[in-house]
Automatic annotation (TrEMBL), chain A:
One of its GO terms (cellular component) is plasma membrane. One of its GO terms (biological process) is glycine betaine transport. Residues 27-206 form the ABC transmembrane type-1 domain. This is Glycine betaine ABC transport system permease protein. The lineage of its organism: Bacteria, Bacillati, Actinomycetota, Actinomycetes, Kitasatosporales. It is a multi-pass membrane protein. It comes from Actinacidiphila cocklensis. Keywords: Membrane, Transmembrane, Transmembrane helix, Transport. InterPro entries: ABC_transp_perm/SBD (IPR051204), MetI-like (IPR000515), MetI-like_sf (IPR035906). It is found in: Cell membrane; Membrane. CDD domains: TM_PBP2.
UniProtKB/TrEMBL annotation, chain B:
It is found in: Cell membrane; Membrane. The chain crosses the membrane at residues 28-49, 56-76, 88-106, 135-162, 182-204. Pfam families: BPD_transp_1. The lineage of its organism: Bacteria, Bacillati, Actinomycetota, Actinomycetes, Kitasatosporales. Belongs to the binding-protein-dependent transport system permease family. One of its GO terms (biological process) is transmembrane transport. GO terms for cellular component: plasma membrane. It comes from the Bacteria. Residues 21-205 form the ABC transmembrane type-1 domain. Coiled coil: none annotated. This is Osmoprotectant transport system permease protein. CDD domains: TM_PBP2.
């Protein structure tokens, strides 16, 4: 049986569409975990990256933190936190946040560093105060790169949230882990397909956010 | 401490501690090496024919969005629960990270430098090997650093598809035998491997680019850009296009 046969069987089975173990509920759980982790990571990394980028100080420390966080294996960290903290949301959030912080931190820093100084000077010359310069000039110009960091983090978090199922939480990983232990390949492939779909949806989501939030003047090219 | 110790690896893994370390390095670096071997010519093609770059970027961005676990699972149908199943996705991820790094690096070579090389009688091949590639080294190493770190981390996930995760297999056994020290061992060793390989790459960059003053602003700047996710770059390109 081909892999596409498995996928279509999985989605055609109406039993997979209802109740607490159904696809809609699992997708919702998956998105809940993902956005929670992404929110926490953004809450930590965005201000840190933007402030250090704005002042231009602490860039090396930041690169060091990002490199160290990237060295942590998500799956291993999850199992370790499961041993230390037991079953719950926290042991899942820790590896996911550690995964999302480096791309957000580094791109937001780099985005602020690489803002063209000419419009900033022009804004100052027009009498804008430091706060206005930050929010009306620097941030809008830096936004595309900041968003690409968030997108990179979102894709990685949505993909990795599957591991929540290893420590008995929900989400789309449930299909994969349960399917693997029951040797039911159809469910495994179905779950994997759904995760790919969600990851691709993140690309679409951030493309849309970029369209709506990035000023046409910035988008128009350099 | 009673019971088995930190480095007592359960016999079902059929490997010693250092055996697992070796296996892990192998499973992580083979994909990066293959990725680099493919990315170099592909990157060069993208520089030569610039219309090729946007579609290549799109394809690589989409491929990068495929979760490793899902990728492994799709491949089981074709390659079984073998090491190949782990190596193929990691190769794809490395490729995705390296192509933009190489293109950015090669494109950063100033036109004057290229003209000077041509004036000195360099042919296209010589110019590529002796001018473009060396100048692109910091960018390529930057891409390699991210690729190696992610590869080292992702090998562990191979444990979920049947003991193909090297040090990640320790995590399975940690749960199976209720031995948390095995999980700690796996995380610490994996992280240490990632950090050591990262340092090795930084040293390699220093050795390959002796003209870059050490501790200087330029070198520090290169170290910082090393931390920028190459995968996060595409939107910049397509918003600019």
């Amino acid at each position: 049986m081909s892999i596409f046969q498995f996928i279509s069987d999985f989605f055609r089975d109406s039993a997979h569409w209802h109740g607490q173990y159904g696809i809609p509920h699992r997708v919702l759980e998956h998105l809940q975990y993902s956005f929670m982790a992404l929110g926490i990571a953004a809450g930590i990394a965005l201000p840190a990256g933007l402030i250090t980028g704005h002042t231009g100080r602490g860039g090396n420390a930041l690169a060091l933190i990002a490199t160290a966080a990237r060295a942590l294996p998500s799956y291993g960290l999850l199992v370790l936190m499961f041993f230390w903290l037991g079953i719950g949301l926290t042991p899942v959030m820790i590896p996911l946040v550690a995964l999302a912080v480096p791309p957000i931190l580094v791109t937001s820093y780099e985005a602020m560093r690489t803002v063209d100084p000419a419009p900033v000077d022009a804004a100052r010359g027009m009498g804008m105060g430091p706060v206005a310069v930050l929010f009306q000039v620097e941030l809008p110009v830096a936004l595309p790169l900041i968003l690409s960091g968030l997108r990179s983090a979102a894709i990685q978090v949505v993909s990795t949230t599957a591991i929540a199922a290893i420590v008995s939480l929900g989400g789309l990983g449930r299909f994969i882990i349960d399917g693997l232990s029951q040797r039911d390949y159809e469910i495994v492939v179905g779950g994997a397909t759904l995760i790919v779909g969600l990851a691709l949806a993140m690309i679409a989501l951030f493309w849309l956010i970029g369209r709506l939030a990035v000023s046409p003047g910035v988008r128009g090219g350099r | 401490m009673s019971g088995p110790g930190f480095f007592d690896i359960p016999s079902d893994l059929q490997n010693s501690y250092f055996g697992l370390v070796g296996l892990h390095i192998e499973e992580a670096l083979i994909p990066v090496a293959i990725g680099l071997a493919v990315a170099l010519p592909l990157g060069q093609l993208c520089v030569r024919f610039s219309w090729l770059y946007p579609p290549v970027l799109w394809i690589t961005t989409v491929l990068y969005a495929i979760p490793s676990l899902a990728f492994f699972i799709f491949l089981i149908d074709y390659t079984g629960a073998t090491r190949t199943t782990v190596v193929i996705p990691l190769t794809v991820y490395s490729l995705v990270l390296l192509v933009p790094a190489i293109v950015d690096g090669v494109r950063s070579v100033p036109q004057e430098t290229m003209s000077a090389a041509t004036a000195m009688g360099f042919g296209p091949v010589q110019r590529y090997l002796k001018v473009q590639l060396p100048i692109a080294v910091p960018a390529i190493i930057a891409g390699l650093r991210v690729a190696v770190a992610s590869s080292i981390s992702l090998v562990s996930v191979g444990a979920l598809i049947g003991n193909q995760g090297a040090l990640g297999n320790l995590l399975q056994d940690a749960i199976l035998y209720h031995r948390s020290e095995l999980a700690l061992n796996s995380v610490v060793t994996t992280a240490a491997l990632a950090v050591l390989l990262d340092i090795a790459l930084v040293l390699l960059r220093m050795a390959l680019t002796p003209w870059m003053p050490r501790g200087d602003r330029a070198a520090r700047r290169a170290a910082r850009t090393a931390a920028v996710e190459p995968a996060a770059r595409p939107t910049l390109e397509d918003t600019a296009a």
